[in-house]
Amino acid sequence: MITLTLLHPSQSTPVQSWLFDSESVVRLGRGNQNDVVLYSAVVSRRHAELQNFESKWELINFGANGTYIDGKSITQARVVDGMIIRLGESGPKLLIRLGANDPAKLGKVVNRRSPSASTPDPSVERNTLLNLRNTPVENHPDIPTNLE
Fold this sequence. Notes:
mainly beta, 7-stranded mixed β-sheet, 5-stranded mixed β-sheet, about 0% helix
């Protein structure tokens, strides 16, 4: 299982998460065909991919504005549990977790797929669109304002 959690831009608390149980590729970007869709001016339509090779995940950048780990631009990197990536130098931050997770630490789950699910769960949204750049944080419906 791999979980991607969008972090609040200033407080780094979970806003929403995407869970994937058995995928070998998870696509991130602004385009609707991606598994994780994030609308931001610095996110490319096809920005990055997470690829599973023999139970080890690799992150591959395709974005024109880069993908960053610890402030450094990468073209490809091995994924480690707990790493935080940024799409674009000033774009959204995502926490990557490998294995099972505590649901209380995920924020709003917007995508969950599993090998046994033949039909999507109607209670879980797929590809929730989030526009962090054009919506003030205090007015955004998916970003809690009462964080401690």
